[in-house]
Specification:
There is one protein chain. The chain is an all-alpha fold and 216 residues long. It contains 7 helices and no strands. The chain folds into 2 domains: 81 residues, no CATH class; 89 residues. Helix 4 crosses helix 5, helix 5 packs antiparallel against helix 6 and helix 5 crosses helix 7. The longest helix has 38 residues.
Length: 216
């Protein structure tokens, strides 16, 4: 409503950067600098949380044997330093791709990221559904669960169906099909890597941990 009041009767070009122009119209000094500061702060916050998440995931995967043990090294302060450096390096490469290959490699990377996010949420919903069924089948009691999904099994099944509908819908949007073209091969490559390379190492580490627990 404020924007409508500020720009009534103005040229269409003034609708660009609406919030910035609103601040300028109200006479707020350094409006452009304020907006730039807010945007930069938001970007740095996202980058910080992203680096934290990716480095910790890479460290955790290394501990489970899914990737090289090189990434399981911790600094004196408990920071997964090798995983963090690798995450920063890949992030910098992605940034360079957005500058020098914005119409090719960068599009592929963003497509894989988007497809991966939806696929992960679909997997989480499916895991919630089958995990509870397996828990009950093994003699567990629902009351013993620390968290009981409300409206089970409707909620996890509905979440899975909606995420799958999103993935299928990509095929009908020409500009979004690239997510399927890049995401599905990448998903199959990860699946193949796990079963052909990482699975034996994961099972071996799990067996060693089981023996250590039994010895204690």
């Amino acid at each position: 409503m404020c924007w409508l009041a500020c720009f009534r009767g103005r040229k269409p070009a003034l609708w660009k950067a609406r919030l910035l122009r609103c601040l300028t119209t109200f006479g707020i000094p350094y409006a452009a600098d304020i907006m730039n500061f807010v945007i930069i702060t938001a970007v740095l916050s996202v980058a910080n949380s992203g680096l934290y998440a990716t480095s910790r995931v890479l460290w955790s995967m290394s501990r489970q044997g899914m990737v090289s043990p090189f990434f399981s090294k911790l600094s004196k302060r408990g920071v997964p330093i090798n995983a963090l450096i690798a995450s920063i390096a890949i992030g910098c490469l992605s940034l360079l791709c957005s500058i020098y290959a914005e119409d090719t490699v960068y599009v592929w990377l963003t497509a894989i990221a988007g497809f991966g996010a939806v696929t992960v949420w679909a997997s989480i919903a499916l895991s919630s559904y089958f995990g509870r069924k397996a828990f009950l089948r093994e003699g567990g009691d629902v009351r013993d669960l620390k968290y009981r999904t409300p409206l089970y099994p409707f909620v996890p099944l509905a979440a899975f169906a909606l995420n799958m509908a999103t993935i299928i819908g990509l095929a009908f949007i020409p500009d979004q099909r690239i997510a399927l073209y890049c995401g599905i091969p990448f998903l199959l490559a990860c699946y193949g890597y796990y079963h052909l390379v990482a699975k034996k190492r994961v099972q071996l580490l799990a067996a060693e941990k089981g023996e250590l627990k039994a010895a204690k």
